[in-house]
Write a structure and sequence with these properties.
The protein has 288 residues and is mainly alpha-helical. It has 13 helices and no strands.
Length: 288
């Protein structure tokens, strides 16, 4: 069950990243984050009320608050690093944040078997290669590397924090709701600051009309991200965190394959090899 939930997490995050990437081609990235998360808050709020979530409130919700603060900061650092580029280096490096939950699992006494250790190594290598790292071209700025590593640590921290936010399904809905409210507050503050500095909040082509026309896609991105956090939390609670975290971090492979299938983007040989290694690592982790 842990493997299936973690793989579902990868699929959801991969498609959410793909959808978000398409949206940011015509809508400012911060606006995509804030609007998509606001739509997710509405749906989660209804779920929390329907399931009696407020009764599950306890001290563990502070983990959700922390995840809600760290997440937007990590995303902003990642977007900034992508802008500095090259993307072929930045994108796969962002997935090394898996070291955070894996390290925590090891510190808590988890000891993967031999096959699982091999699967972790193979899967991580596959994820890095699937991003299509550029070995030639423009030099990578130190600032881009620093921002990417900051984002990676942030992404890994969110995985670790949300896994601790609740131990029940009803409580998980509440934790995700609190996390998203914090996301919206943090992202909204950042958006307000950027607008004050002169950056646009709305698309130059279409304005509010473009936002309204994209509400379905924005809702998908927000809800897919929420669902991924939920399935990861369940995976980490039901099995070894070291296994759940690595399998959940295969989302760059999903994003690359989605770009191939929908946009017709051709995969480099290194990306194809990376996807194959990621699948091999998945088999080793699931059978180890």
């Amino acid at each position: 069950m842990t493997a299936l939930l973690a793989l579902a997490t990868s699929a959801l995050w991969g498609f959410a990243d793909f959808g978000g990437g398409l949206l940011t081609r015509r809508i400012p990235a911060l606006t995509v984050v804030v609007v998509s998360q606001t739509l997710a808050v509405v749906v989660l709020g209804a779920l929390v009320l329907a399931t009696g979530g407020p009764r599950e409130a306890d001290g563990a919700l502070w983990y959700a608050v922390a995840a809600g603060v760290v997440g937007p900061v990590a995303m902003l650092a990642f977007y900034r690093a992508l802008a500095l580029g090259p993307m072929g280096v930045v994108s796969p490096l962002g997935s090394v944040g898996v070291a955070v939950p894996v390290g925590i699992g090891l510190l808590l006494g988890e000891r993967p078997g031999l096959l699982q250790c091999a699967g972790i190594g193979v899967a991580v290598a596959g994820v890095l290669l699937a991003g299509g790292p550029q070995l030639r071209g423009a030099p990578v700025q130190r600032q881009a590397i620093g921002l990417t590593l900051l984002a990676a640590v942030g992404f890994g921290a969110v995985m670790a924090l949300i896994a601790e936010a609740s131990s029940t399904l009803t409580g998980l809905f509440l934790a995700l709701f609190v996390q998203r409210i914090t996301n919206v507050a943090t992202g909204g503050a950042a958006l307000w600051l950027t607008v004050r500095r002169g950056a646009p909040a709305l698309p130059e082509d279409g304005g509010w009309t473009a936002i309204r026309g994209s509400l379905g896609a924005l809702a998908f991105v927000g809800l897919a991200d929420v669902a991924a956090n939920g399935t990861y939390a369940l995976a980490a609670q039901r099995g070894p965190v070291t296994v759940a975290a690595v399998l959940a971090s295969l989302y760059p492979v999903v994003t690359a394959l989605a770009a191939r299938g929908v946009l017709g983007e051709r995969l480099k040989w290194v990306q194809t090899a990376g996807a194959g290694l990621a699948l091999l690592g998945t088999v080793l982790l699931a059978t180890g």
